[in-house]
Specification:
Layout: H1 5-32, H2 39-42, H3 44-57, H4 66-91, H5 108-137
Length: 141
């Protein structure tokens, strides 16, 4: 059964919002609990597990296809993070986040720039995991 374009766009927006919410929650917890720097490399794997669970639930005959989930959960957050980061860099090139230390004073522009970079990191993990997931894990299900 073919769905209407507005319904598909709404589902795509919901997937993107859910992915961004999970990523934001993850990075707020990282800041709140003041985790070690090496944890930053491992935390996006939690989002990858969520992505895998959503991919297992989707299929070609269901409401959302796997490519649709990939576009909403991986590509759109990556593009949003890149666009937001580039805009912040263009608008505020002197921010401490873009300097060598990466530790800002907490100005709202610095927080936005920091989280856009974190969205890029997590979405990059998701894209790499999605390739591995499509080639290896999902073929076994």
């Amino acid at each position: 059964m073919e769905q209407s374009i507005p319904k598909k766009l709404g589902m795509l927006a919901l997937l993107t919002a859910g992915s961004l919410f999970a990523q934001t929650l993850l990075w707020v917890a990282y800041d709140y609990f003041q985790m070690q720097v090496w944890v930053m490399g491992a935390l996006p794997l939690l989002i990858c597990l969520l992505y895998h669970a959503v991919q297992l639930d989707s299929g070609t005959d269901k409401l959302m296809g796997r490519r649709f989930v990939f576009a909403g959960a991986c590509l759109l957050p990556l593009l949003l993070g890149a666009a937001l980061g580039l805009w912040m860099y263009w608008k505020y090139p002197g921010l401490e986040v873009f300097g060598g230390t990466g530790w800002g004073g907490g100005v709202i522009q610095e927080i936005i720039a920091k989280y856009s970079a974190r969205y890029l990191l997590t979405s990059g993990y998701l894209i790499l995991f999605a390739g591995l997931d499509a080639v290896y894990f999902l073929r076994r299900t």
